[in-house]
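ok here's Splicing factor 3A subunit 2, seq below lol
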Amino acid sequence: MDFQHRAGGKTGTGGVASASESNRDRRERLRQLALETIDLNKDPYFMKNHLGSYECKLCLTLHNNEGSYLAHTQGKKHQSNLARRAAKEAKDAPQQPAPERAKVDIKRFVKIGRPGYKVTKQRDPDSTQQSLLFQIDYPEIVESIQPRYRFMAAYEQRIEPPDRKWQYLLFAAEPYETIAFKVPSREVDKDPRKLWTHWNKETKQFFLQFAFKVDSRSTRPPSPKPLQPASTFPANAVPPSAGVPPPPP
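and the structure came out like this:
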C-alpha cells in the first residue's frame, strides 16, 4: 500500500497525533515548565489529602501527583479563578485613606529686577594670592530672607557653550533676579580668613570675598634688591676731609 501521498501522512513517520495525544504532550510541557518556576511549598492552594493525592483548594480538583497539579495551575480554569479571586479581594478590602503629604507653603515673589553690584580685584603682597571682593546691593529685599551664593561649573549652565576655563558665581535673593559672574575656573582657597561673607541688615548690602589658591607653576621669583650706587672715588683714594681747603687750580 502506498502511504506516500496520503493526507497527513508520510512514509517513515508515526502519523498525525490525535487530539488526546496533543493534550497529553501539552500538559507534560506545562508540567516541566512549572516544576522549574513554581515552588509548591509557597502555593496557598496546594494541599495533600489523607489519601495521598493532591487537591487544588481554589478549583476543588483532585490530582494524582505533583506534576498533574502543576499542569493544572497553568491551565485556563486555574488562571481565571485566580483573577476572579484577586478581583473579589480587591473589592472587599477596605479602602485605606491615602497618607496626607506634608504641606509646604511655596513662597512666590514677583521679580523686580537685578540688584546693583561692585567687584574689586585684589592681590595679597605676601602670598601673591589673587582675590575678588563682591558687594551686592539689595535695598528692597524681603525681611525674612538672607542672600545666598554658590559656585557653579561651566557644564551646569545652559546659557553659554561650556568652557572648562571658566566657572560661575551665583547670587540669589528674593524678590531680585539671580545674577551670575564669570570667574576663572581655579581652585578656591577655603580658608575662613580668605573666604568669608557678611550681610549688613542696615545698609542691605551683601559682601563676599574669596581668594584663589597659588599655583606653584605660576609663582614668580622674588625681585632682586636694588644695587647700591657706586662711589665716585677710586678704591685706593682717600676722600677729602671736611676741614681741609681744596687745592689751588
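fwiw Residues 3 and 13 are 10 Å apart (CA to CA). kinda neat tbh
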